[in-house]
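Instructor's aside before we start: the two examples that follow are unrelated to each other. I chose them only because their records fit on one page, so don't look for a connection. First example below.
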Amino acid sequence: MNVHIGSRPSLLRNVRISGPSARFIPVSGPLDVLLDAGRIVDIAPAGALRPVGPIWDAEGRWAIPGLWDHHVHVNPWALFAVRENVHDATSAHEVAVRMAAVPPDHRGVRVGVGMRDGLWQSPPVLTELDAITGDVPTYVVGADLHCVLVNSAAARREGITAPADGMLREAPAFRVHASLDAISDDELDAAVSAAAARAARQGIVGVVDFDMAWNIGAWQRRGAAGFDTWRVRAGVYPQHLDRAIAEGWVSGDLLHDSGLLEVGSVKVITDGSLGTRTAACSVAYPSGGHGELTVQPEALVGLLTRATGAGFSVAVHAIGDVANARALDAFAMSGAHGSLEHAQLVGRTDLPRFARLDVTASVQPQHAVDDRELVRAEWASQLAAAYPLRSLVDADANITLGSDAPVAPLDPWGAIATAVGRSRAGEAEPQDGEGIDAITALGASTERGSRAAAELLPGSLADIAFCDADPFASDVEGLRTMTVGATMLGGRFTHLS
């Protein structure tokens, strides 16, 4: 068969299957997999199935269920590639100098991303930023998306007054995000399509999109234009909940007749982040303060109750231990169902509540290593569990893995490797006792998470990643460098090497 992106073979030859799905296969060696209507209908030893249509030879590649990234901010992630990345800058002065050398874009502004100001020795100063960057509106988005550094020209463009350090945090920063991402639909959708194709090369078949714009409309538009690279669950923020209810949407509703795009959860942000020292914690930060709850407990219960009554699942952002405790309280009191996003600092008595309340822990393994130095500096006195993963699994919580892209790269194999090794590339591992096994990590990277991991069996969706090595037999570095020869979504190729 002359295969290409978009081809739909009926028979896959010379496929290897390992991991949990292999327990149902009574023979070893290469297999044939028969597909029909986007699903697996038969699996048998190679050569045992009569072809009924086009054939594709997998050449002994290892088939696994297609991977999901359960936490992506699609629009800023797609635009990340065309913005100046300053993640390795060590001071505000260095950031200003680097940004001053960036040519303004077609709107006459400079945009930087990846700023990690929590690691700087001294805070930024607006007057110094202005002196270096001049009259060109200059923005630098924090790595965690919870802050934006602006010069005075950028502040004037936004109609605001810049603080003395030029740093906008939380709600003001989110408003600036929306302004920066307000480009033409055609330009944005082209960037999203290109980024989705890159993700398909890594075996990604689905994402949960928590973009802060009116996400339902964006994905309806993309579906109508033929987007077919991923399955997408499009999140809804509280500021759009009234509109979503008025238009009759509920979680799970299809946004396009392709069946790939659906309404996701209502996303509620209840505290800040570690990087901005605004995550709500029981023990004060070394510089003072306990962070902040951006939604008070009573209001959170009311919001979750309303969303649940209207037919929505919920996804609650909680990073500090106080925010996690209050979020779990709200799930208990409202009867809401869904996920707790991040769970970066969790009280030890709160760990079992995830399973009891059937709340999914949606975590981003890369943050645990990216934030290691911040944890040592800012959370050294905390009594709660920092970046728990093994602890959540041991407490029988359902786990899903994601990236929080563009906060971390959309790299499912990096996330899986980090979940197992809790280490950076090239480091001795494990770095702590919170690593999990590869079977759990791979299951947490499928559609429903670790407790209901997707498998390759007759009747399963033909959402498949074809790996060049067996991920279930790979060490941490093998997982981190895994290559995917082909990706299939509903029996149709979205990637071929």
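Example two begins here.
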Amino acid sequence: MKILLTGATGYIAQRLLPVLLEQSHEVVCCVRDASRFNAKKYGKRDNLRVIEADLLDKGSLEAFPDDIDAAYYLVHSMSASGEFSSKEEASALNFVDAIGKTGARQVIYLSGIVNDHELSKHLASRKKVEEVLNSGNVPVTTLRAGIIVGSGSASFEIIRDLVEKLPVMVAPRWIKTKCQPISIRNVIEFLSGVLDREFTFGQHYDIYGPDILTYKEMLLEFAAERGLKRRIITVPVMTPKLSSYWLYFVTTTSYALAKNLVDSMSVDVVAEPNDLKDRLGIQPVPYREAIRIAFDKIEQNLVLSSWKDAMGGTYSKQMVKKQLRVPEFGVFTDKKVRTAENTEKALNRIFAIGGSSGWYYGNWLWEFRGFLDKLFGGVGLNRGRTNKASITTGNTVDFWRVIYASQEDKRLLLYAEMKMPGEAWLEFRIKGDKVYQTATFRPLGLAGRLYWYAVLPFHYFIFNGMINKIVAND
């Protein structure tokens, strides 16, 4: 079959794509910026094609092939700030119009469980998108999932942060809300399993694991699985806003995502039973087994995708192209050059920078800068990186975004996503036996200039120490 895969750089799609390719389907990946799609990690594939289209730009959807048989709608804006629901509805309307002009026989949509009488803004938006998709002339199969447990998923990483960082948690009332988590392995089995199954056309199904748990039970079972003793104290006075800030400061999540998560956590997310798993021959994975599977992937450095690497709706191809051009005028720069005895070792260090590897010098200063960033509403330093050894365009590295990464070109370019009065880039290049490290800062007004001079003494030690460690032959 010829399949259109939207949201192809997202967390779920990157897990689904290898399965569809192995099943010999021809997959057309729909992305806003083809340069962000790393086709190399899927090997040489004759059945993989990439097209550029933005669901908010109706004209760009003319790129949809006419001869597709099915389409996956995996577009999600939960981590976006602002009015995400209107954008989600607009995207769905444009998609319905475009997909109706193709030969598609089925649309498969991953939504959220919406069985409670009162829905959060996020879940209400998911339900509205489902209604919009069903208004078209192509039959829709909707799969509704709650908490997804898997390495790199937002829910998993947030639970992990809370459990590993806090021996004692003071939690709000939503900690007693019930949910029915599902393993990412099962999610992918359902998504691929309903493909071209006519009995699923025009139907919706809750997909779920075997355990119904409160968020408190999920945290405690996660702790037990990791051999940690944790205590949770529930208090009635923590408002949704305070709860959002609590998640934001303790975990790797952004404030926008924390806010939407807290809104959703006040709603029971328990599935309505159905026989879909039996008809597809799927064995639900228990919650604690899903945790074990996730950590097996992490320990083997085999995490395929992470929610942190998906650029939000504020990113566009034009914006990335702008960030790719490091300015030369009206900027402050800190340039360092060193000779490397072993350029291969230096290159490996460059491409392993950040995350658990740290920044090679003055890590406590980097951590303090990350703390300050969190105080001012930034992403902070604790996003880490998805893979310890490899890195691709679009990935996050702590509070940086990878704009360009090529070991063949021996170049890594990072763009700062921290809060600051200006824009910043950090670039590494190797030419011959020389390693070039350049920090570039474009100030915004007087505040930007004062900021640069205030941090200049710290830069002297940090950047010298960093490049010296990169070229060290030890």
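The two ends are 52 Å apart (CA to CA).
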